[in-house]
Amino acid sequence: MPHVSSLIKKYEDKIDFKIVVLNKEKNFTVAEIRDKFGADVPVFFDEAIAKKCGVYSTPQAVLIDGSQKLYYRGNYNKTRYCTDASSNYAQMAIDSLLSQNYIPSFDALALKSYGCSLPKCTK
User: Fold this and answer.
1) pLDDT of residue 55
2) Tens of pLDDT along 37-48?
3) Please, what is the angle between helix 89-99 and helix 2-11, to 10°?
4) Residue 86 carries which DSSP code?
5) What is the mean pLDDT of residues 63-83?
6) Is the dihedral of CA 91, 14, 59, 71 positive or negative?
7) What count of other Cβ atoms lies within 10 Å of the Cβ of residue 109?
8) What is the dihedral of CA 83, 84, 85, 87, to 10 degrees?
């Protein structure tokens, strides 16, 4: 969460962030989620959004460009707690999208999910 919060704070005036909550084990309110992330962003409790973006495990970052095409789907970082600045994949993808330079080519660590499977996932 601290890493996502820092991305929101850094890019909130350039990126339209949304949080999709997939944890059905606990009942969080929108206010609790916003408080956890320290951000006033839209919060959705809809697993269908993740499926449409091809997200089958969490945590994952998804970037959709201005023409509504998938630009990046992958990990925030190669380390579980986003502590390796050299593999800050989500920020690299955001910077690339904003600069309109090129779509970065990431290694398997960026693109292979390492988190928890979503409920009822068969992929």
Assistant:
1) 84
2) 888 999 998 888
3) 10
4) G
5) 83
6) negative
7) 15
8) -130
What residue spans of 1-123 are helical by DSSP H? Answer: 2-11, 30-37, 47-52, 89-99, 108-111
Residue pair 39/52 in contact (Cβ under 8 Å)? The answer is no
Q: What are the Cα distances from residue 114, in Å, to 40, 80, 108?
A: 27, 8, 11
For the chain, list the domains and their CATH numbers. Answer: 2-115 (3.40.30.10)
Residues near 31 by Cβ (< 8 Å), separated by ≥ 6?
Answer: none
**Encoded tokens for 71:** 């630009």
Q: What is the pLDDT of residue 81?
A: 66
Predicted TM-score (pTM) of this structure: 0.79
Residue among 50, 28, 30 nearest 40 (CA) = 30
- φ and ψ at residue 8, rounded to 5 degrees: -60, -45
Q: Phi-psi region for residue 107, left (φ > 0), alpha (ψ -120 to 50) or beta?
A: beta
